[in-house]
Amino acid sequence: MTRPNRDLDQAGHTLQSVIALNLTNALEHIARELSVLDGFPERGEQANVQATSELTSVERHADARYALTEARETLRDHKAQVLQSIRELNEYINVVMRMRQPRNVTKPKSNDGLCCAGQQGKEGAVEWGDPMCFRMADKVGMCSLHYQRWRKHCETKGIDRSRDFQPLR
User: Fold this and answer.
1) Which of 40, 50, 53, 119 is the S-S candidate for 129 at Cβ 3.0 to 4.6 Å?
2) How far apart are CA 2 and CA 77, in angstroms?
3) What are the pLDDT digits (tens) for 90-99?
4) Are 112 and 91 within 8 A, CB to CB?
5) Confidence (pTM)
6) 72 vs 83: CA distance, rounded Å
7) Residues 124, 115, 145, 101: what is their CA dihedral angle, to the nearest 10 degrees?
């Protein structure tokens, strides 16, 4: 069995065990702090107008709310970027896994159980088949790739495939 990529395995563990917990705690902390910062001072301020560079408590609360809200949105953006990167990596991995197999395969001495032997005599084999396919046969004497091509060819041409089945072993 193939072992998972070590770097991604460690990153997944860190993401699950550390970052997920810390992100949840940080977002809850911000929510608690924002609920406390309602913009009103704890004791009533006097309505005196003063010319000073110091912030009033209402202004300090507004600055704190802005900083906390910005931090919350930044955390959410980073989380969305990580999830998007994971989705893109997974999509690209799937594309790579569907790429063509190398064509420099040597032909075995016997054709028994090979895809190229199973294609012979099938309807439209010239269109969908490959006489140089030396993969082992899975379904109806063909590899899964050529079986799907043959199935789609038959569906397009309206050919009955009900007699072509492989009994269970």
Assistant:
1) 119
2) 34
3) 889 888 877 7
4) no
5) 0.50
6) 17
7) -120
